[in-house]
Amino acid sequence: MADFAITPKRLGQMQMAKYCARCFWYMLRLRFHAPFDHFGGAIFKKMEQMQMATVGIFLENDGRLPAEFAPFCNLISRVDYPRHWSKFQYHHNSGVLLYGEPDDIFEVSDGSIAVIDHKTARYKGGDDPFLPCYETQVVGYANIAELGLKLGKVSKGGLFYWEVDDEAVTSDPARFYRSKQLWTPFAVKTHSIDINYSLLDPLLKEVKQLWNADTPPIGAAKCDDCKKLDLLLAIEDQIVIKDQKILQRFSDLSYITNPVIGRMSDRRCAKHTAWSEFLGQEHGLAFADDGMIAAWIE
Predict the structure, then answer these.
(1) How far apart are CA 105 and CA 240, in angstroms?
(2) Rounded to two decimals, what is the model's pTM?
(3) Are residues 200 and 230 in the same domain?
């Protein structure tokens, strides 16, 4: 059985209400690069950098965060750690390699450390459908930091939600347009996360079972993604059936059948090439540039 690697963020998707084991089985094999997915998230990276800079200037000037960051006002400095997913990793005792790229790790006034993730989003408390995923993400990063990289005892985990006050801008836009620039106000709200590493155990057990399963499990009831997948496969089946009917009907007319045979061959070659490339990355860790994939090692 091959070892397996995954980010805490991807692992956290198994905690969401809409989690579907069948879809996750396919996503593992696609390394979380689904077709037709072209999300342009560069702006969120820029926002995160600004948020981190804001936190940093408070720590640099005041040695602590202001009251609105409670209960994280006792963070006193940033911890030096590998800020790249290829180095922020360790083998969990389950045999799974956990890796990722946490936003911030801080030293707490009592000598422990805190793992924080920034979210450019409106804080919804317990009603946030992504909250279980975010909590697993932070716990996973904490696990790597404490047990893998030995950065210190993690006593705090949390989310810093940075909410844009769009209502203030839309109600009085002239107030926020100055010097040929639009200034948008953001407010921070925090969410504490209990650091309980046992949260990871059942998820890691299940994800290993999914990875080692030769066939996908039954999908979740009323899963929209399963319906889309079934439709995609059905479209492919209809194309094959249509070409087969043409070959049967016009078997003696090569000028009709040859193009059909050609495109059928092209489709088979494309699938074979994709599968060969997939198998060709079997040896060694196979990471994408963004680090947000599943990978495996010999």
Answers:
(1) 53
(2) 0.86
(3) no
